[in-house]
Amino acid sequence: MAMEKKSRARWVLPGLGVLLIFLMLAAAGVGRYMVPFDKVVSILSSVIFNVEQHWTDVEQTVVLNIRMPRIILAILIGAGLSVSGVALQALFANPLVSSHVLGVSYGAGFGAAIGILLSENHLFIQGMAIVFGMVAIALTYSISKTGKGTQLYMLVLAGVIVGALFQALISLIQYVADPEEKLPSIVYWLMGSLGGTSLKDLRLGIPLIGVGILIIFAIRWHLNVLSLPEEEARSMGVNLKLLRGLIIIATTVITAVAVSLSGIIGFVGLVIPHFARMVVGHEHRVLVPVTILMGGIYLLLIDTIARSATAAEIPLSILTAIVGAPFFAVLLRRTGGGWHD
């Protein structure tokens, strides 16, 4: 079975790449205002090449200014949350871990809720989310420190404590918020949405989330070592402290920035790594890029459904839970929560 998955990986990566490109083009034409596929290709090609215009200005605006920034951000956030999940699962040697485990998501959510309460400035809201995401990881790390250093199980427990604290603070913000003006915005934002995505969001998301993804991609060769006993890993010349630090920093940045741009989106970092393992196995050299592509495809599909299925946009966290929870339940029944192929 392991050899079969290893050979399968040779065509999975290029296949996912082609599928992602096709879905990007298809999603750019789908919505309440439909744009034919050939026109989408021509509009996007006109950015680079000299193409004779056979589309309307409205179609060009919809594709280039409204849908493409949202599509790119959906792919970026889906890829980032998914690869964060696979890195944290390797770090803690636990298949049930995701980016929520360190309390970052709820810390960033609390920051955004304060930002919405105090201001309507989008950049201020994003900045508050990132700041409190960093505060959450700092609290988690400080609580987890013991006389013997920072143990991984202490980090998990500290993350649960910090996450619960920030969840309570989010509830407090909702309780004191103006029920007519601020509360609906806070509740809707926390449920997750990419509505209103602009080029300004891409200028924030691409550098920060992109760097986090690249860090995990660069160290993917060493992620398998984390499952070995510490002495054996050190004997192989791996700096475990540096490796763990890079993973925590990269996943924290990815999660905080993703939450600042889209709200709290659950199940992506939990389900996609498992699905990728079912396809290509546990070798992180292949698993990480496959997870990145699958995560981008998954959230792109979810977001396209969210904005197209009904007249009113469906919050992303609702769809990811509806799809992710049953899938994860079936997966747990099949695998018993273990790591076996």
Automatic annotation (TrEMBL):
It is a multi-pass membrane protein. InterPro entries: ABC_BtuC-like (IPR037294), ABC_transptr_permease_BtuC (IPR000522). It is found in: Cell membrane. GO terms for cellular component: plasma membrane. One of its GO terms (molecular function) is transmembrane transporter activity. Belongs to the binding-protein-dependent transport system permease family. FecCD subfamily. This is Iron complex transport system permease protein.
